Amino acid sequence: MQDASDDGQSASDPYPAYAAMRSTCPVQAVPSGSNGRASYLITGYAEARHALSDARLSKDTVAFFAGKDSKRRLHPAVAHTMLASDPPQHTRLRKLITGAFTSGSVAGLRPSIIRLTDELLDRWPADGAVDLVAALAVPLPVMVICELLGVPETDRPQVQRWSADLFAAGEPDRTDAASYAVAAYMTGLITSKRLHPGDSLLDRLIAAGDGEDRLNEEELVSLAVLLLVAGHETTTNFLGNAVLALLQHPAELERLRGNPQTIPQALDELLRFDTPVSTATFRFTTEAMSLGGTEIPAGVPVLVALGAANRDPERFTAPDRLDLDREATGHLGFGHGIHRCVGAPLAKAEAHIALHAILTRFPDIRLAVSADQLDWRQTRLIRGLNSLPVLL
């Protein structure tokens, strides 16, 4: 994981700063931490899409940090996940888990997601105020991924706290401690499932094979942690950002409410408009390269600003306007290339079900505070709300 500290852009609206940078040059050197070394930030769509699939940009954090004096002490299962690997290792690991997240596999989860969504919304008052983040956007993805992995219900609140700590901006000690706690928990859960097998995704990963190939213990723990954290953290922010965007665009909201069958298509525009993963996970150059008219030396971090790329007017006309009729399937909200989010079908299923339920059950839903009072997370990696107070 890269440092998630705020980079000086407004957490509430980074897009004007992104636009200003992009208009100057779509690839620029930016200060990186307190050591004075530069990283390179990509804000243009074409350049970002290229970077996400360029083999000269490595995600192997072990190789990058080898020999460097780092104060970070993340557990290896968190620091060295499938996301932080290159082919052939990445290819092998992804092949062993991809089947669990196909559209067909996710379709089998829809009844469970609907049930969990209804259980959460049943607790909402018929009228009055509620924090949509705390009352839906956080617990729903946690419940779904925990059910999928076979995490016992009594353990889920603690697992949720560890996941939140892993993204605690500016608190490296808290993040590092959480990485050891969640890795230890997953190690114990895997041991328990070996003794008492079930039919969860984690059970299937334990048994997964490709010919003679099997996941070893370290790989199992790492994949379990990755699925747990990535499986709900980004979906939480996707839900919060999507509902906020609709509440701020009442005409689009009413059009969607009147045509709920269009929600699946609307999800791509909502993802493009306010991308929950603002900056893609860590990459670095393995050799000098030229991108967007900028020369990038070897051995430096490259930050791909997905949120900026999705607002590039060279790719999307009037990009700062939410337009649910837009053909937005080319957005980079789930990444691109071999590292494109494997859980995208599950995230979309959860968002579809949740939005449909909200639009159906709460026709008068609206913001309880002005937009400038909303509390945004102070992190470079994730773009999301700490809370979203709404009136029902």
Question: How would you describe this protein?
Answer:
A hairpin with a 6-residue loop joins strand 1 (27-31) and strand 2. The chain contains 17 helices and twelve strands. It has one domain (15-391): Cytochrome p450 (Orthogonal Bundle). The strands form five sheets. A three-stranded mixed sheet has the order 1-2-10. The chain has 392 residues and is mainly α. Helix 13 packs parallel to helix 17.
Task: Walk me through the topology.
Layout: H1 15-24, E1 27-31, E2 38-42, H2 45-52, E3 57-58, H3 61-65, H4 76-79, H5 89-97, H6 103-107, H7 110-121, E4 129-131, H8 132-137, H9 139-149, H10 156-166, H11 172-195, H12 201-207, E5 209-210, E6 213-214, H13 217-247, H14 250-258, H15 263-273, E7 284-285, E8 289-291, E9 294-296, E10 302-304, H16 306-309, H17 344-361, E11 366-367, E12 389-391
Parallel strand pairs: 2-10
Antiparallel strand pairs: 1-2, 3-7, 4-12, 5-6, 8-9, 11-12
Helix pairs in contact: 7-9, 7-17, 9-13, 10-11, 11-13, 13-15, 13-17
What are its keywords?
392 residues, mainly alpha, Cytochrome p450, three-stranded mixed sheet, three-stranded antiparallel sheet, 17 helices, 12 strands, 9% strand, disordered N terminus
